[in-house]
Amino acid sequence: MRIAVFCSSSPTIDAKYVDLAFELGQAIAAKKWDLVSGGGHISMMGAVARGVRSGGGKTIGVIPQALVDIEFADHDSHELHVVDSMRERKGMIEELSGAFIALPGGLGTLEELFEIWVGRFLKFHDKPVIVLDPFGLYSPLRQMIDHLESEGFVKPGQRELLHWTTSVEEALDRATSE
Known about the structure:
By secondary structure, the chain is of the alpha/beta class. It has a single domain (about 1-135, about 165-175), classed as Rossmann fold (3-Layer(aba) Sandwich). The chain has helices spanning about 15-30, 45-55, 65-70, 85-95, 105-120, 140-150, 170-175, and strands at about 1-5, 35, 60-65, 80-85, 100, 130, 160-165. Helix 1 (about 15-30) links the parallel strand 1 and strand 2 (about 35).
């Protein structure tokens, strides 16, 4: 199984988020799964990859050349695919992965989460989409989605395709439960 992880690459976040990413990486390796990531080496993105490698697992990064040029790339990846654009990056990550976990993150993480969730609803793929949020960072987002549903903007069946979890174990269990 190859599992994609969407998460922050910000160096200014609390260390608990970086620790969570490393813990998830270790758990992915313990299951003998491969990691597919955005191919960066800093913050949570780097931590999840280091966690996988610390457990003997394989890491596959997909990164645009523009980010390689600013020394953002995880050159320790077992495979590092350098692409031309963010759109190409997301397409390759989707193609390579059997499930998706979104950890806490900012605009890029949210954009990836929403795109993969919409793709699932539109039946472009049938892979599990999971949010791992043990610290409640996404609680306001979850409330907003509830509000959008109550107002008719989130269609019936859309919410059920996004799985909210609060532990690494629960998130990985959801990755294989469909």
